Structures are given as structure tokens and as C-alpha cells.
Amino acid sequence: MTKNINSASRILSIIDSVKAESDATPAHDVWGKVFEIENEDKSRKTFAISRCLADLHDEVESVRSEMKKLGYSENLYNTTLNKCNTLFAVQTLMSKWQSMKQQITPEVPVALGFCSEILPNEEDLIDKDSLDDLKRMAADLRGTLSSSKLPDYTRNIIDKHITKIEEALTKYRAVGAKAFEEVLQSAYGEVIANEEAFKKAKGSPELGKLSAMWQKTKSALDGVVDANKRLGAMGGMAEKGQKVLEFLSNLNV
């Protein structure tokens, strides 16, 4: 396990997990497996994978930028990062993995390991049990929503919240806790903008499960924030998460 958790370590973890995939496997299927994207609609699946690969590209460029700021020679990492960007290119999704894995040359994991040691630790890992719990809670709420008697408008809002959690779970491997920061920020605005709709759902099983799901999300993020005493953006997102929970808890009676 790497010493630090950061953009470089996440990229390295993903590359380690895909380098042994069969040559004949479509790249599309390899990435679907990595991000646990299961969707019978191929277009939707491709879109979800594309977003994750775009996130990985951003992570690659973050590593490049941070290493440059620290004054390290670009020849130590540029070739590896360029190969990573080629590997993560959306336009290669329909290629066979054989052509893509050629980018994973021996120096790639070495250079990424070097970068992960040099760059500071960003966060603690959210434990797998918490991620699995969130996945189950989202699926359970979606099942409840399918037979809900709530107004269509309210059901659509709750469905958006479920989708946001599912998207964060998918993105987590690529971008880490930032995925949940974005979700909490979005949820905060959604709750404030739709206060009346939530009030009409007061005391419903759907609202109770939604509140529990956000509580689990905030608890997972709090573990990351507290462990590293990060008081910046993540601290702000955790505060917004608390406001979301307070609002929903007041209605869940």
C-alpha cells in the first residue's frame, strides 16, 4: 500500500488493477469493471465511463502541476503522465485492450510510485464497508421509490439525490473524497431550492431513507476530514452536509 493517498496513488492503483487484463477484452469492458459501472444501456454505460476517464485525465494533470510546483524535473514524470493520458483517452474505448496496455511500460508504475511518495497525503481512505453500505442504501431507496405514493415532483427530486450518490461512488476510485464533496454541495443547493417539496414528504419512509443515506455519506466524509484536520473546502462541505441532515432530520418525524 502506498504511503500517501493522493492523485498519483489513485492513478497507480487503477493501473495496477488493469495491467493484467486479457488482450482481447474491449477497453470499454475493462473500464466498466474498474469503476463497477453496470448498465444494460450501452450508451449510458459509455457516458458514465467517459466521465470517469475525464476525471482521471484531470488527476493526471494535477500530478503534473503539483510536481512542477515542487521543482522536480519534468523528465522524471512527463513521459509516464503522457502515457497515462493516452491510456485514459475516451476515443479508445472501443479498442481492444492489447493496444491500450502497451502504454503501461515498466517505468509507469515506478514514476507514479515516486510521485505518490513526493506529493502530500490528501486524505484517509473511506473504508470499503462504508462504500458498500452506501451502495446498498441507494439501491434500497430506489426500490422504495419505485412504489412510492409521493408526488412525481418529489420522487424526481429524491431520485436525483440517489443518482448523485451513485455517481460519487463510481467516481470515488478516480478522484477520492472530492467525489463526495461535490455531492454534498449539490445536495445542499437541491434541498434549499426544494424546501416545500420536502416538507410535503414529512415523515415518509422515502425521506427517512434519504436522511439515513446522507447521514452515512457525511459520516464517511467526516472520517476523512477529522483524520487529516482539513479545514478548507472539505470542512466547508462537511458543514453543508450537516445542514442538509439537520433539515431532513427535522422533517423525518
Structural summary, described in words:
It is globular and about 60 Å long. It has 2 domains: 7-118, no CATH class; 128-251, no CATH class. It contains 12 helices and no strands. 72% of the residues lie in helices and 0% in strands. Helix 7 runs antiparallel to helix 11 and helix 8 runs parallel beside helix 11 (205-228). Residues 226-231 have low confidence and may be disordered. It has helices at residues 7-18, 27-34, 42-69, 78-87, 97-100, 107-118, 128-146, 152-175, 178-193, 195-200, 205-228, 233-251. It is mostly helical and 253 residues long.
Short description:
The protein is mainly α. Helix content is 72%, strand content 0%. It contains 12 helices and no strands.
Q: Uncertain regions: pLDDT < 50 for 5+ in a row?
A: 226-231
Helical fraction equals over 70%
Radius of gyration, in angstroms, nearest whole number: 20 Å
Element-by-element helix/strand order: HHHHHHHHHHHH
Specify the overall morphology. Answer: globular
Q: Report the biggest beta sheet as strand number plus sense, adding barrel if it closes.
A: none
The number of distinct β-strands equals 0
Ends apart, CA distance between termini: 44 Å
**Which class of secondary structure composition applies to the elements?**
mainly alpha
Range of strand content: under 5%
- How many individual domains? 2
Q: What oligomeric assembly is this protein in?
A: single chain
Task: Look at the structure and give the mean pLDDT.
Answer: 88
Number of helices: 12
